[in-house]
Design a protein that fits this description.
4 strands, 4-stranded mixed beta sheet, 2 helices, 29% helix
């Protein structure tokens, strides 16, 4: 779990500029981000995304830490998102010898 910073103006454009000022824009962007994560086929069971301002919060259960990291990168590399907070659960990585 943690917070990751990204460049807000760079990345995939999911939100329509005309919707940027709409009251439901955060919910619409969150729904599009959830759809993007589902399309990627990551090992995340029922990912939930909330958008608060320019921060996205991802919740869910991931099969691996790699899936968590991929989800953070996918969401963070979206225009309008400057921070990603992950509240996902993932199995602990095996200890290195």
């Amino acid at each position: 779990m943690g917070i990751f910073n990204f460049f807000k103006e760079i990345g995939k454009k999911l939100a329509d500029q005309g919707q940027a000022n709409a009251a439901n824009a955060p919910q619409a962007l969150a729904q599009k981000l959830e759809q993007e994560l589902a399309k990627m086929g990551l090992g995340i069971d029922a990912p939930k995304v909330r958008v608060e301002g320019d921060k996205a919060i991802i919740e869910g259960n991931a099969r691996s830490q790699a899936d968590v990291e991929k989800a953070v990168l996918a969401v963070g590399n979206t225009q309008g998102i400057a921070q990603v907070e992950t509240r996902m659960n993932a199995p602990a990585a095996p200890a290195s010898k």
